[in-house]
Specification:
This protein is of the alpha/beta class. It has two domains: about 80 residues, no CATH class; about 190 residues, Rossmann fold (3-Layer(aba) Sandwich). Helix content is about 45%, strand content about 10%. A nine-stranded mixed beta sheet has the order 1-2-6-5-4-3-7-8-9, with helices on both faces. Helix 7 packs parallel to helix 8. The two termini are about 25 Å apart.
């Protein structure tokens, strides 16, 4: 297995791979794990299959090589990559001190690297972190709880992780900011193009007090695939996930599923039985796929209990 080293060439190659890669590309993750980022890029550019590690036994390997070859045109010239790395964003990847170890639970589906902006150290901030997410079309009840949970968790020294979307996400971020705590926003597109655009002020505030994160490189636009894929990053950065208002389908439930797959505590806040926006939370609780929580103390107890059991 390749051991990642923090060299300039590794950094360049990891950055290039963020332009080439689509989220959750298990085969690319396996290639980088086996060969290292520098050699992986060389193999992709040469159009040759990797040596050893048994990777070519996968029936999808040839299609993957064709897909990566077609995507090479998205990779900027080296000078542009170096300018991006020397700009207002930093690149974090396995082997760096700032890499959050929780992402390793995603295996080969983990991001090859993350673009980061902000004052908070990503790895340290995620050691005591909770994802708070839910419906975009939040009710006043949900928005209040999102802000309350965000503020209470941040006030007790926990980092609040979410996706900066409208609704519960934004409420949780603003609650944490109001409590002068640390909050991390996982974006679906490049950090130079905040999405949604109406949250540009929120992104600025998070950058000044926490961190913005994306596996998409500068210039990349948010897409449906990236919106879906970032839920695994939100769940993996956090030591537990709280759902506040979620219908029977949606991104919040995807984050809950990823947290369960990572064997990290999932919590849900109950709502009015007449509210469709709480039906997903109620289903999680009824199926014993989530712990019922009503305040930040419940969340901290659940997460600390799970951490103690794993230690």
């Amino acid at each position: 297995m390749n051991t990642t080293t923090d060299t300039g060439e590794e950094r360049i190659a990891r950055a290039e791979l963020t332009w080439l890669a689509e989220p959750r590309d298990h085969l690319l993750g396996a290639l980088v794990r086996a060969s290292g980022a520098v050699e992986a890029m060389a193999q992709i550019r040469a159009g040759r299959p990797p040596d050893g590690a048994g990777l070519t036994a996968n029936p999808g390997w040839q299609r993957a090589m064709e897909r990566w070859d077609a995507a090479l045109e998205r990779v900027p010239p080296r000078g542009d990559v170096e300018r991006a790395l020397g700009g207002r964003f930093r690149l974090v990847y396995p082997g760096c001190a700032e890499w959050p170890v929780g992402l390793d639970g995603l295996g080969d589906a983990a991001p090859v690297a993350l673009w980061v902006a902000g004052v908070a150290g990503l790895g340290f901030s995620c050691l005591r972190s909770v994802a708070v997410t839910g419906a975009r079309a939040a009710t006043a009840y949900g928005a209040y709880l999102g802000s309350e949970f965000g503020a209470s968790l941040a006030g007790r020294g926990w980092t609040v992780v979410s996706g900066a979307a409208f609704g519960i996400d934004a409420s949780a971020h603003r609650g944490a900011l109001g409590a002068e705590g640390v909050t991390i926003a996982v974006a679906a597109g490049g950090l130079d193009e905040p999405y949604p655009a109406g949250h540009a002020d929120l992104f600025d505030a998070i950058r000044a007090q926490g961190a913005l994160v994306s596996e998409a490189p500068p210039g990349a636009r948010a897409s449906r695939l990236r919106f879906e894929a970032r839920q695994r990053v939100i769940a993996a950065l956090a030591t537990g996930t709280v759902i506040i208002e979620a219908g029977s389908r949606g991104g919040a439930l995807t984050a809950a599923r990823h947290a369960r797959d990572l064997r990290r505590p999932v919590m849900a806040v109950p709502g009015p039985v007449t509210s469709d926006l709480s039906s997903g939370c109620h289903e999680l609780i009824q199926r014993r796929q989530a712990v019922l929580v009503t305040c930040a103390s419940d969340v901290i107890n659940a997460v600390e209990t799970a951490l103690a059991a794993d230690s």
